Every structure is written in C-alpha cells, then in structure tokens.
Amino acid sequence: EEWEADSVLGTLLQKLREEGYLAYYLQGGFSRFQAECPHLCETSLSSRGGPSTALGPSPVVGLGGLCLGSDCSDAESEPDRDAMSCGLDSEGAPPPPAGLLPSFPVQILPNLYLGSARDSANVESLAQLGIRYILNVTPNLPNLFEKNGDFHYKQIPIS
Q1: CB under 8 A, 24+ apart: contacts of 120-124
Q2: Does residue 38 fall inside a structural domain?
Q3: What is the enclosing helix (H) or strand (E) of 107?
Q4: Domain housing 53
Q5: On the CB side of 36, how many CA atoms lie within 13 Å of its CA?
Q6: How far is CA 10 from the centre of its chain?
C-alpha cells in the first residue's frame, strides 16, 4: 500500500474497510488510468454520452472545484475563494475557472455521483437523479435529510 495512513485517501480507505466495505484506489491516479484506458474516460471537454477523443491526456476537472467545508458551499458566488479552504486538485494546481467547472453532481459511474455541500442540500436534484445514499466526507456539515427516511447517510469526516 503506497498511501500514507494520515492522508485523506488513507483515512477514507481505512474507514471504509473498518465498515466491511471492499475499498480500492487507482494506483497512479486518474492520469495513469486515462493514459492506459482512454476509452473508459470522459473529460469536461468530451460529450456527455461518449468517451473522450483526447490527443493525449486531456485536461480533467479534478476535485479542486469540490469544496468540502461550509465556507465553500457556493463556488459561483465566491470566485476568489481561498485555495487553502477549498483545496487544490490532485496535481497541486489551482482549480479551473468557474466556467470550466462541471455543474454538479457529476456522474462518476452509473448510480455514483460526486457533488458538493450545495448539491447535498438540493432535495429536488437528489430526487431527480434518484440519489438515496449519500457519503458525507465533511467533518462539519450535517446530514440534512437523514430524518425524513428517503435518504441513507454514511459520514466519514475527513479533515
């Protein structure tokens, strides 16, 4: 295992495994996966329904635009947000301009979406996408719809 136990990835993998889930990660990250399996990848520049037609590794919308804290819950209204509170993408670069950020939630796999705090608070969007199970990785944001019975939450606080 090449990840460090105190890293975000290490914490997430440890918590998922403690709960009895089989958890894996891509060794080499998305860049290596895209280089080896471009037919299985989409980028922000490719069409919604098909794979990327990249001439090499394409620019990818990373996790830099995903804010985990409540101070970053509305990226459009805070264009000059602090990079330290929102984080940088996996390459250490600042997030792409707001015009290139996807409209969350983004479908990662069938029935698996990646979204922000704002998305998790939008019950209409969750219902429209059929999202009923939510993994909350924030240390400070509540599971808003936990008591209504339509949503199931797993909270793994990562700071």
Answers
A1: 120/144, 121/73
A2: yes
A3: strand 106-109
A4: 1-60
A5: 8
A6: 16
Residue 40 is assigned to a structural domain of this protein: yes
Separation CA 37–CA 30 (nearest Å): 10
What's the number of domains the chain is made of?
1
Helix locations, the chain, DSSP H: 8-18, 29-36, 83-86, 117-120, 123-129
Strands 106-109 and 152-155: unpaired
pLDDT tens, residue by residue, 107-142: 888 888 888 888 899 999 899 899 999 999 998 999
> Which pair of structure tokens corresponds to residue 91?
């390459």
The answer to whether residue 120 sits within a structural domain is no
The rounded distance, in Å, linking the Cα atoms of 118 and 74 is 7
Sequence-separated (6 or more) residues with CB below 8 Å from residue 66 = 86, 87, 104, 114, 115, 116
pLDDT digits (tens, 9 = 90+) for 74-83: 434 333 333 3
